[in-house]
Amino acid sequence: MLAPAFPADEAQRLQALQALHLLDTEAEERFDRFTRLAKRLFGVAVVSVTLVDAHRQWAKSIQGIELRELPRRVSFCGHAILSDALLLVPDARLDERFADNPLVTGEPFIRFYAGQPLRAPNGQRIGTLCLIDRDARAFGDEDQALLKDLALMVEHEIALLQLATVDELTGLSNRRGFEALARHALSLCGRQQRPATLLFFDLNRFKAINDQFGHAAGDQALVAFAGLLRKTFRESDVVARLGGDEFAVLLSNAPQTELAGALQRLRDAVQGFNSAQPAGGWQLLYSVGSAAFDPARHANAQELLNEADRLMYEDKLSAGRER
């Protein structure tokens, strides 16, 4: 068996994949309809929209088998993302890369594989739309063209999903994206009994920036604060602009000592930013509310968000607490 190599731009590829926030999310009809359609059109045993992570491949949508995750070292899709071209394996038993692969010698006894790479909006190959069958088979030019067309449709759906869940101004998740990611993160933390904390931020005197310096300056303030949040918190944390001048950060599996350190780093970063502003210019000021996730009190992400929002307003109203 030949384990798949890593692309030369693997770091950038993984960054593009993670930025989509699709890994480990629930099944969605927008992708399931393509795998169902492909299964009917090609008459194969298994169809999957597969994402290739650092050490695993994971199926966002799969038809024909209940196997959503596999080690990358045994994956066919790991080989497929090495090129823009379709990877076609008519009979895996005759291909030195796969002949002794455990997925060929054992369940699901793969014989035929066709994987068309899927690209993120920035062009990075993040996974495949793949067909799998237990019987060796031919796959002609028309079949290949059809699979490529379906893959382009999946890519279009990925791009639309990103647009629908990303704030255009700051590049952070928007409210819709945050709610979806937070729902998944809190479910995981609840099952694994790991801590999670939600921080709710509101920019103070933001209206004054718009009134005194103009809306372009207001946009600059939002982008600047978003950048400081992104730099301060971990890549695994969910950072979002909920709307207007409201932001949220959901930290998973972070002890209180780590949370306190992150908040101090943010205060220092904002202070450094304000110190660099020209005399008489606008300043970044914010209030923050912090709510620790408790499955017994918070039935969903919205309840946790409501509590953090309430605590943020208490912070805003407390004398001497404005930053």
TrEMBL record:
PANTHER family linked: GAF DOMAIN-CONTAINING PROTEIN (PTHR43102:SF2), SLR1143 PROTEIN (PTHR43102)
Source superkingdom: Bacteria
Keywords on record: Nucleotidyltransferase, Transferase
This protein's record includes keyword Isomerase: no
Protein name: Sensor domain-containing diguanylate cyclase
Gene3D superfamilies in UniProt: 3.30.450.40, 3.30.70.270
EC number: 2.7.7.65
Native source species: Roseateles aquae
Entry-linked Pfam families: GAF (PF01590), GGDEF (PF00990)
Tagged with keyword Repressor: no
MF terms in GO: diguanylate cyclase activity
GGDEF domain location: 194-323
